[in-house]
Amino acid sequence: MKEINFKSLIITLVVGVAIWFIPVPDGVKPNAWHLLAIFVATIVGIISKAATMGTMAIIGITLCAATQVLAPGDPTKSILNALSGFGNSTIWLIGLAFFIARGFIKTGLGTRIAYSFIKIFGKSPLGLAYGLNTADLILAPAIPSNTARAGGVIFPIMKSIAVNMGSIPEKAETHRKIGAFLTLSSYNANMITSVMFLTATASNPMAQKFAKDLGVTITWGSWAIAALVPGLVCFLLVPIFLYKVFPPELKETKEAPAIAARQLKEMGPMSIKEWLMVATFIILLVLWIFGNLFAIDATTGALIGLCILLLCGVLTWEDVKSEKGAWDTIVWFSSLVMMGSFLNSLGFIGWFGHLVGGQMVHLSWQLAFPVIILVYSYCHYMFASATAQVAAMYSVFLAVGIAVGVPGTMLAIFLGACASLMGSLTHYGHGPAPIFFGSTYVDLKDWWKQGFFMSVLFLLVWFLVGGLWWKVIGLW
């Protein structure tokens, strides 16, 4: 019972029941409205932590089946529809990528990559930040859980370096020496790398799926190309920006390369399994980028990669079974995608999009575009994850934008990116946030203050640099 917050659960129930019994608006099917009640209640339960995400997802699936909102009068079809999310290839892509990510951590390849960049770039705080961030960037395409990437690879190394440089978590007066700077740099870089590749965090494929439901097709390659320039500009600016507005007291870190070299020496030469992991990573990138040429989609490519790792012994079936994060994600993600998809197919998303779009019909798409992005972005204060925001709001905002004439692909990718970029705002805004905030190097006031500044920087870059880049590649 420790996983259940009864106060939040009661609030969740009240919200769901209230929406259920509100008179159904004209133009909306009753079962679509009732599905909305279950969907909103599930999201409220996740945000308020009434129960774990998996528990709320199972409750949502059960209610959809028991109330027959997905197939009135047909219990068999209703349960099949309620479980339809488990047949979605995008969801299995995320799960498969979790399994592949375990290979990076199990073999030690991810740690070796991070220490290698620290050895090369780590003579100054800026160099140290870029070294850690570059390791995150390289790992991002193959590790879809930015929480796993941050918590399993980057954070332990960052904290070790900070402690060795004199920033002791228990001594508040030492935090600004270098620990606070590296904490914010590594965390915000993780937000950036999360939006640069479709497979870099769980919310991106979710956005891809919802966009496809609205007629906007996004591939791994098209996402990467669109995010490349604004992503790299943000990647380069973050350490410099923080160095100016939140500078470390240390200006040199000459000991860091020696620490990294010592760790690499202890690890010894690359093992056969690490080389196999490198080869598999290259094969995966080729399949994900050029898969269309071979009629292989991203999920099939991930299956091929997992099979290689299993056959080579890099991973075992026990590793796959024990990857709790993957199975947990598959369960709750299936629930949210199922409900989001049926809200669209039952006509609710289209109805709401036209309703809100009607209020913006007097605006040109050039004016509506920034309004949609800004409202969507700063709503993230209410969310504890990008996936929750995408599930609750993405389809609606994308539908509104398309209705007023905003180019669909550009808006779909920007909205998908904002869900992660705005994780910078709060200490709970994304999965890695509690990990980095838990280091105690940055207090709550500074986290929120610098997070807001960072959100402004991100949006300026994506509007200005991104806008110009998207014009060049023909997105508008």
Question: Helices and strands in order, then pairings?
Answer:
Blueprint: H1 6-21, H2 30-47, H3 53-67, H4 75-82, H5 89-107, H6 109-121, H7 125-139, H8 146-164, H9 179-196, H10 203-213, H11 220-245, H12 255-267, H13 272-290, H14 298-311, H15 317-321, H16 324-345, H17 348-359, H18 365-378, H19 386-403, H20 408-421, H21 433-437, H22 444-472
Helix content: over 70%
Helix-strand topology string: HHHHHHHHHHHHHHHHHHHHHH
| Derived structural class | mainly alpha
Distance from first to last alpha carbon:
52 Å
What does the main sheet amount to? none
Q: β content, as a range?
A: under 5%
Note down, in words, how this protein is organized.
The chain crosses the membrane at residues 7-25, 31-48, 55-73, 79-101, 178-200, 220-243, 275-295, 301-318, 330-353, 365-384, 396-422, 451-470. Belongs to the SLC13A/DASS transporter (TC 2.A.47) family. DIT1 subfamily. The structure is a single chain. With 476 residues, the protein is mainly α. It has helices at 6-21, 30-47, 53-67, 75-82, 89-107, 109-121, 125-139, 146-164, 179-196, 203-213, 220-245, 255-267, 272-290, 298-311, 317-321, 324-345, 348-359, 365-378, 386-403, 408-421, 433-437, 444-472. 72% of the residues lie in helices and 0% in strands. α6 packs antiparallel against α7 and α7 packs antiparallel against α8. The longest helix has 29 residues, at 444-472. The model has no long low-confidence stretch (mean pLDDT 87).
